[in-house]
Structures are given as C-alpha cells and as structure tokens.
Amino acid sequence: MSEKAWSGVFDGATDRRVEEFTESVSFDRRLYAHDIAGSIAHAQMLATVGLLTPGECHQIEQALADIRLEIEQDRFPFSCEGEDIHMHVEAALIERIGDTGRKLHTARSRNDQVATDLRLWVREAIDRIDARLVELQRAFVGRCDADFDVILPAYTHLRRAQPVLAPHYWLAYCEKFERDRGRLADCRRRVNVCSLGAAALAGTSLPIDRADAARRLGFIHPPTGEPQVTANSLDTSSDRDFLLEFTFALGVIAEHLSTWAEEWILWSTVEFDFLALPEAFCTGSSIMPQKVNPDVLELIRGKTGRVIGALSTLLVLVKGLPPAYNRDLQEDKPPVFDAFDTVDACLALAAPLVAGAELRREAIAAGLERGHLDATTLMEHLIRRGTPQRTAHGIVGRLVRKALDHGVRLADLTLDDLRAVHPEMDESVYTVLGAERAVAAMTSYGSTGREQVRRQVQRWKERLKAALKGGPS
Ligand code: ARG
User: Fold this and answer.
1) How is residue 194 annotated by DSSP?
2) Ligand 1 pocket residue status of 191, Cβ below 6 Å
3) Cα 164 → chain centroid
4) Separation CA 262–CA 426 (nearest Å)
5) Ligand 1 mean position to 108 CA, how many Å?
6) Which of 84, 106, 128 is the last residue of a domain?
C-alpha cells in the first residue's frame, strides 16, 4: 500500500498528516460491495470490447470476489494510506494478480467510479426506505377496520375543530408517506443512470461500450429496457443532484414522522388520554417511579434535526463548486449515510409502534362532546336551508356562546334557546348535532364521512397489495 496510485509525478512521500486528513476509507468502505460490483461490470465491459482478454477478465472477477469476501469477513486490512475504498480494492487486486490487476482502471477514473458507487448505493437505499414506508402504511391501514367506529376530535391550532373517524387520521398519514414514496420514485429515475465511462471529466479515447456496463449494473429504463448512461462527461463528474434529492426526500419523511410523533406524544399524555403506547416502546424515569415516557417518539421527533442538517450540509457543500470533480465532494458521504441510517431506524420503529398502540376508546368517547365539534356542521345545515354562510356563521357563534354560558353542548340547547337566536330554527337541527351526527353528515370526496372513509380504506388495502409486488420504480 506504500506506493500511491498517483505517485509518478511526485518526488517524495505524502505527509502522514495529509494522509489522515484526506482519507475517506473510514466512511466510504461502506461502498465496498457497490465498488466491487461496479469494477466487475467495468472489467466485463472491457473484455467485451477487447481491452481485456476473457482470461484477464475472469482473473479480475475472481480476485474481486475474494476481496469482497475478505471485507465481509472483516479480514481486509484497511489503512489511511490507502485513501479510499476504490484505492484499497484496486491495490488489493494488484497485490493478488499483478499486471492484470493494473489494467482494471483502464478508461476509468475515480470520479466516474465514485459517482457510480453512490448511484448504486442510493438506488438500494431508496428501495429499502420505500419498503419501510409501505410497512408503515400497512401498520396504519391495518388499524382501520378495528378502529372504524372510533370518533376523534381533530384539531387546528391545537384547538378542537371537527370530529373525524380514527381511520381518517390513519389514512392521512398514509397519504403523506405515499407522497414520500412518489418523491423517492421520482428521484430513483435520475439515480438510475450510469456514470461509468465519463472517466475523469472528458470521457475516453478508448473504444468502450458504456451501455454494456450500464446494462450489467441494472441502470435500465424499466418501460423500454434501454440502458441509461449519463450524456455529458463533464456534468457527470460533479453531479450530486441525486444525493440532494434523496436527502430532501428523507428530510420530508423525517418531517412527516416528527408530526406523527408529536401528535402521539400529546395523545398519550394524561391530559389527552387518547392513546396507550405499547409499553415495550416506552422507557421509565430514574427518579420518578410513575413515569412511562414516550422516548422513542421523542427521539423520532428529535432525529428529524439530523436529517435536515444533512440536507443543509449537502446543499452548502455543492454551492459554488467549480464544474467537474472537486475533492470537496468526498464530504458528500457522511451526511447522506447518516440521513439514511436515521430515517431507516425511525421507520423501523414507527411501524410496530403504530400497530401496537391502543386507542383509549372510553376516555375519547367521554370527552368527545367537549369543544362544540359540531358547530360547523350546524352552520352548514343552516346554509343548506338557505341562510347565507356569513349569517349562519354568526348565528352558530351566538349559539356556541350561549352553550358556553350554560356549560352545555349545542345539542342540549332547547328549541326555544335556538329560536331566541334564530327564529327559523326547527327540530331538524338536532339531526346534525353531536359528534356522531356531525361525522355522519360529511359526504364530500375525501371527507371523514363513513362512506368516504370506507372507500378510502378499501382503496388503500388494494394499493398496498399492489405495492407488495412493485417497488418505487
Ligand atoms: N475519495 C474520493 C471521493 O469520495 C474519490 C474520488 C477521488 N477523485 C480524485 N480525483 N481525487 O470523492
């Protein structure tokens, strides 16, 4: 490992401090399998076009497979003089097979190599996160039938607003995570393009076949089956848009998780008492024996900061970089790995937490009529009978005032009370009062009316069945 791959033009050795400062193998070793897969495809392509003999290619493939095994089994010697994963693998290859190993880097630079490794890694990471999102959606949809009859207050400004069916809440999260899946799928299209062959920045004068390497690595456009290669070598060398996009998609997932975590932290308080969290997902206090704390949810909420931090690190990293590769880009890996690990870990816990929580049905029902959740439906009842919206709003506002003064529900006001505010009131108002009736009155598409929610639950069950078959592509 002592001689550098680039040592030709240098007279002396590299300062040890520089080696330590510039190394990336401490974190990019994580790309070893992708690096080796990329190298095997590259070697096979070189053999296809005659730049390697079939025998040389075979030797390279065998040696790379051995190196992969050594790394997997933790027997591979990593050191900071080796700089990065690409140099380590190549040096080990040359150590094993000599001059044949020295041919692997033909028509290739670490610039197109690292971009390819990253694309392979991100593609896998997307598929993994997508599967986790589906798992989480399945946990929410899995609750819908059992929770169908539970009515919960919904809030705006954290003030009681209108009543909704519990599954309406569950499917609201499914929608958010579905948009996340869409973002990942969209990002995947741009990730799934092969950088190999762009070489350092200008391409190569050697007779390579870029489509061949792309095909071998699965960089294929699904509908047409056509291999996908980047079209401009200069752009390819520095393009990290796909990392920004992926990390942004992770950031939005983390935001959605943080909203959910916050809501469930509130719901599981003594004050709300809507939800019992599974005990295995809570922790205690070292001094207050009665505490059952929602630490997992709090950490999910808290870890959102790391993901957003990673995104901002990446955005600042690429800002103002001159075109083509710059060493700054080596710094792209730690934030993207951390964002992925963080979201992956959060999602892994979110699904069982969602499945294992229990609604506190009695407590919810006992408090449901507080907060005049039916006020809007009463207003709409008046509108349906010809009262202009602004007038109806005023009437119901005065009725709520009256109910507050008497400490009662709207449904408890007598017809005389109602008529005192609005003489045209009749018995029919009682058909929309109370949380249960307010929910029943909802009919618009996407609303919390029973029929609407029932259809949406059905739609989600079918969707998830389909999601099992296909990934985000
Ligand atoms: N370790 C480097 C990185 O991660 C690999 C590419 C190095 N290229 C170069 N021209 N020095 O970005």
Assistant:
1) B
2) no
3) 27
4) 42
5) 12
6) 106
How many angstroms is it from 188 CA to the middle of ligand 1? 23
> Under DSSP, is residue 70 helix (H, G, I), strand (E, B) or coil?
helix
Active site residues: 157, 285
Q: Is residue 10 part of a domain?
A: no
Question: Is residue 9, in this structure, part of any structural domain at all?
Answer: no
Residue 5 inside a domain? The answer is no
Q: Do 422 and 378 share a structural domain?
A: yes
Ligand 1 lined by 121 (C-beta under 6 Å): no
Number of domains observed in the structure of the chain: 3
The pTM of the full predicted model, rounded to 2 decimals, is: 0.95
- 264 and 311 share a domain? yes
Mean pLDDT in consecutive groups of 10 residues from the start of the chain, 473 residues: 77 92 97 98 98 98 98 96 96 98 98 98 98 98 98 96 98 98 98 98 98 98 95 97 98 98 98 95 86 94 98 98 96 98 98 97 96 96 96 97 96 95 94 95 96 98 85 49
| CA 42 – CA 189 distance, rounded (Å) | 22
> Rounded CA gap, 396 and 387, in Å?
11
Residue 123: CATH number of its domain: 1.20.200.10
The 8-class DSSP code of residue 13 comes to P
Same domain membership, residue 207 and residue 125: yes
Domain end point (choices 70, 86, 106): 106
